[in-house]
Structures are given as C-alpha cells and as structure tokens.
Amino acid sequence: MDDARGQLITFHLGKERYGINLNYVQEIIRPPVILKVPMTPEYFLGLANLRGEILPILDGRRKLQLPPNELSDSSRVVVLKLVQEKIGLLVDRMAEVVDLEGAVFEEIANAQVNTRLVSRVVRLPQTEELIMEIKPEGIFEKKLDQVCRGQRSFELTEVTESQEVAQENFSLEQLIGFKLGNEEFSLPIAAVQEIVRVPENISKTPGLPAYVEGIITLRNNTLPIINLRLFLGLERKEHDEKTRIIVLNLSKEEGSYLFGLVTDEVTEVLRVQKSDIDDVPSYLANDAGELINGVCKLNSGQRLIYTLVPEKLLAESKLQLEAKNEAEQREVTSELMSQENQFVIFGLDTGEYGVEIGNVQEIIHVPEITSIPQAPHFVEGIINLRGAILPVLNLRKKFSLQLNSEREAERIIVVDYQGLKLGLMVDTVREVLKINEKEIEKTPALLNDEIRQEFISGIAKINGGERLILLLDLKHVISREEKEQIEEALDIVQN
C-alpha cells in the first residue's frame, strides 16, 4: 500500500482491533441519549444531541456485521467528520493512537471482512498485532465527491384545498378539548396560541385573585396564569404529568392580550358540525352568564362538551392586561410569527414526533375499529367518523416498532393525505407546540442519501437540543402505491 504516513486512533469491536485515520476523528464521547428513528437498519442507532448539533449514531459492531453487544462503562462513541458531515460510531472500548511510520500494510485476505468498510490490514513494527483500518467514506456510505456536494435540498410543495373541502370546513368548528375533573370543555382553536407544560417556577404576585396562579415568561412575553379549576369554583388539584397550560391570544382593536389557562388534561382537537352545538340550557345560563356559550353533542348526545368564550374568560377574570400594541413590538411579533409554525406533538414508543397543526383536522379517542381485508399490514382497520368511513393507520406497525401494550392514552390524529382522509394511531398526544424555524434542522445527510427517510421533514431541537422531535412530512408517510391499496380496500368495504 502506498500511504505509510499519519496516525490511527484504534478501538476494539469484539475480539478485533480496528483503526481509523486520526484526521477524521473529531472527539470521543460516552454514549449519549439516543432518539431512535423508525424504519432504519439495525446498525443505525438513532440521533443524539452533541452540543446543539444533531449527530447520527451508528453501531460499529452491526455496521461491520459483528454480533451485537450491550453497552458497558467502556463503550464509547467516536465522532467522525468527513468534509461538513458528522457521524458517531459506537465501539466497545478505545485502545490507543498508533503511528504508521514503519508499519507493514497487507491486503484483506479474510473473505468475511467487509472490504467496503475495511481498506487494509496494518501490522505494527516490532509486534505481530494486526489492526484493520476502516475507510471513513465507507462509514459515511458515499464517495468523497458526493460529500463535497453537501446535503440534498428538498423543495416543499404546498397542497391547496379544493372548493369542496373549503365548503366543508365552513360548516365546522375546530376546537381544543380539555378536562377539568370529570367534565369536558373546549375553546376555539383560533384563540389558542399554543399548549405548553407547566413550568417548574411560576412567580407569585400579591394582590391578584386566588385563581391567578402567578406569572410566567414565554417567548419574551409575560403571561398571567389562571387556574381554571379555581376560576370555575372547583377544588384545587395538584399539577401532574397531564396538566397543561392553554395559552390564549385574543386580538382586539387596541392590540393583543396573552394569558394562560391551567387545565387538568388537554384531550383532543375537535372538528364538529355547527349543527351539533346547542345553546346553553336555561338552567346553566343564569349561573354561567355568557362564559359558556354552547354544548357540543358527540356520539349521539352521549358525550357533552361545554364550549367556553375566551373573551368572557378575560373579562370576568378582571385581569388588567396591557395591550401589546406598540408599533415596534408588533413588528417583532409579526417577524416571530412568520418564523414559527404550530405542531401537534405526539409520542410513539420512546420517541417524540410532530405534524404541522394545519394538516391535523382533529384528534379523537380510539373507538371500536373494524378490520378490513386486502389492506396493507399497517392499516389497523376502519372507524365510523360522523357517518364517514375513516381508515386508521397504526404508526407503530408502519414504522416497524414493537406493538403497544399500554393503550389507555392512545389517540387517533385525523389528517388529510392528498384527498384521502386518514387516522394515525399514536401512543399519546402531548401538546401543541410553536417551533421557530431556527430550531428546526434538516435531516442528516446519512438519512437523506443512504437510508432515505423522506417522511422526516426535519428535526426540532427544543431547549438547545435537550429534546429532539422528529417532524413528519405527511406526503411521504405512505407511498402512492400504499395509498392506492388503501383506496382499493375501502372500495371493497363500501361496495
């Protein structure tokens, strides 16, 4: 071999010792928290946060077709960099840095060694120890000239709604549903800015009514927080994992007003026919005033949800809020709004995923599901949604994840996929989150070029990357062929 210069950093995988040119090694770290990416090869462990950067992690053993091994105190991740791309390689334990001067290089003689990954065998001077040298471009699964071109860019296309869909939406009310005790309430989604978890610290302010929990700071805005239980005369309840704050943004002529409502649990996004919302019964109207303006009747009236008027909440809370109407602040707010999108965040297995709220028609509990023949394996079946047949996709099956044993929190997210209305079954719906474009990173080049995960449109790095959320591109969650199979199966059921 012609290159006898440089240094190798060496490590162990099983009984063998491997090395890689030190020029490609950025650093060596302990195994971090890893976010699993569905529908990826076994050797692709997932994504990790490396000081704000998204780092793909590969299992060195599986990549070299060796038996897998459990993590130990000696396990390390070797961070490699090829041009502008970084990848982490999990190894059993580190060895040492060796100098190649005087080394003897041999061709690969073992037929079981993957020559796409291992370039040659290095025999160190004055020793019989052998080191198999790994090709960096083999780990990155591309040639150097491919890397130099950089990551592929994807053009996102907008899907415009048809007149028929627009007309249907005109007769529907879209609401955020939540619980207080055993009762269900809702607020118009147009007034909801976002839904967030309860922060650890809420600043108490003297002189405010007892139902005002205090003040928090959210995106440089000061928000008073109203405990809706206390406001409505219910008993106080300690905050738990399900407790959420619904942030309302009410616009008036003099400006906009922001405040938060503490609720026991945000349950779903509802799309209900206006005809299914009745006026408040007379016996409630006297006590509730104009705070409750309607009652939604779902499941033929077996389930009732009160609809609240956000403006009345603000007026009756007697909070003296200052309108945010300064020209400079409006300009900043407008700029921030243009850079932010709302996402419905849901859990699936150990990962978190997000879909843009504009693609979500509603979120519902899982009703009885009827299986259908000749559908793809990941189609759980069909449900009756207000007289319409809705196919339900089990995302765990679609993403080849282990089936869920805890089903109490499962929800169905109803979306529109190129004219076909689908339900996506997920483990739990967690929150509605505003994510700034600056917090969204493109998918690593490895996912684009080698594994081809087109259904991931980006990765949100929340809290400086401490929390990673895979953002789904619904246009690629199922293929055109799978969509046709689902439509054919629906035709059989309907005919």
CATH topology of the largest domain: OB fold (Dihydrolipoamide Acetyltransferase, E2P)
Q: CATH class of the largest domain, anyone?
A: Mainly Beta
What is the percentage of strand-forming residues?
Answer: 35-45%
Major pleated sheet: 6 strands, mixed
Pfam family, one: CheW
Organism: Carboxydothermus islandicus
Protein name: Chemotaxis protein CheW
GO cellular component, one term: cytosol
Describe the structure.
The chain is built from eleven helices and 33 strands. It is of the alpha+beta class and about 500 residues long. The chain folds into three domains: about 5-140, OB fold (Dihydrolipoamide Acetyltransferase, E2P), CATH 2.40.50.180; about 170-315, OB fold (Dihydrolipoamide Acetyltransferase, E2P) (Beta Barrel), CATH 2.40.50; about 340-495, CheA-289, Domain 4 (OB fold (Dihydrolipoamide Acetyltransferase, E2P)). A six-stranded mixed beta sheet has the order 8-1-2-11-10-9. Strand 4 (about 45-50) and strand 5 (about 55-60) form a beta hairpin. The longest helix has 15 residues, at about 480-495. The protein is elongated, with a radius of gyration of 28 Å. It holds the Pfam family CheW.
